[in-house]
Design goal:
Layout (H helix, E strand, L loop, with lengths): L8 H21 L7 H24 L10 E2 L2 E2 L2 H17 L3
Antiparallel strand pairs: 1-2
Helix pairs in contact: 1-2
Keywords: Membrane, Transmembrane, Transmembrane helix
Length: about 100
């Protein structure tokens, strides 16, 4: 039934980024409801640290390793280079006359 569902580590890190952002927004709106200033500052500092760590992980892909470097047309490429090459190929195909 759920054979088509696959785990995505990138989506997990993005959810953590969203949660940290949501914590910052919520604490900014309800700051006065909780008189413990140290706890509020702790929440803000914790959310900033979690946000920065998750954003770093999602951008660097440090936790993803299948043991193979990225390849395109037989040459080793950085993932961003592969994306640019693919997109440029699509743009060129779109702009070329039939």
């Amino acid at each position: 039934m759920l054979g088509h569902v696959e785990y995505s580590q990138t989506r997990t890190w993005m959810a953590v980024v969203m949660g940290a952002t949501m914590a910052l927004i919520m604490i900014s709106f309800i700051w006065r409801m909780y008189p413990n200033r140290r706890a509020n500052i702790g929440i803000v500092i914790g959310a900033v640290i979690v946000f920065a760590a998750a954003l770093w992980l999602v951008r660097r892909k440090e936790t993803v390793d299948d043991g193979r470097p990225a390849r395109l047309n037989g040459t080793y490429q950085e993932p961003m280079q592969i994306i640019v090459i693919i997109l440029l190929g699509r743009v060129a195909a779109t702009l070329s006359p039939p």
